[in-house]
Amino acid sequence: MKKAIRNIAAVFAVLLLCLVFSGCSDNHKSSIYISEVMSSNTSVFADEKGEYSDWIELHNPTDKDVDLSDWSLTDNGMNARKFVFPSMTVKSGEYLVLFADGNEKIDTENGVIHLPFSISSKNGEGIRLYDSRTNLVCLLSVPILEENVSYGIDENGNETRTITGTIPFNS
Fold first, then answer.
1. Do 60 and 29 form a contact (C-beta atoms < 8 A)?
2. For 26-51, what is each residue's pLDDT tens digit?
3. What's the rounded Cα separation, in Å, for the pair 117 and 61?
4. CB within 8 A of 156, min separation 6: which ones?
5. What does the angle CA 32 – CA 34 – CA 37 come to, to the nearest 5 degrees?
6. How far apart (Å, rounded) are the C-alpha atoms in residues 45 and 38?
7. What's the pLDDT tens digit per position in 83-115?
8. How far apart are CA 50 and CA 54, in angstroms?
9. Which of 53, 164, 26 is nearest to 115 (CA)?
10. What secondary structure does DSSP assign to 106-141, as a single string?
11. Handedness of CA 34, 40, 42, 44 (dihedral sign)
12. CA nearest to 56, candidates 36, 75, 71, 79
């Protein structure tokens, strides 16, 4: 019985930490952040081969270019360096779309990046963006999503899932 209570308390603590530490909406105007995610893309936005996969969109709302060299992105809080960005810059006001299909491929010349992980549409999960010193910049807790429904942060910093069947902003 005590073990069950400890397990419940641990789960509650993790959930509370996720709620408190979901940092994307708090700093969405002062740093690059995860602006939109689609975890079950079957017909909305195709990659360079015409295939539909999960995608993550980053946005730089600041008035300065952001060098993503050695920054990282992950779907696993225990592995902050699951995907490490190559030498590349997101200019002021621009967006960057990353395909999360589990097949890592980096083609910065053509602006195409495929991540070594996909996003769970059945369970939801946290997507984390870290700077080059592995400081957490943004944690977006993605809920369970229906097919072709994206989830993101609007211009006011509010998390929303009303972005249905839209393509990423920069496409």
1. no
2. 555 668 999 999 999 998 889 999 99
3. 26
4. none
5. 155
6. 10
7. 999 999 999 999 999 999 999 999 988 889 999
8. 13
9. 53
10. EETTTTEEE-S-B--TTT-EEEEEE-TT--EEEEEE
11. negative
12. 36
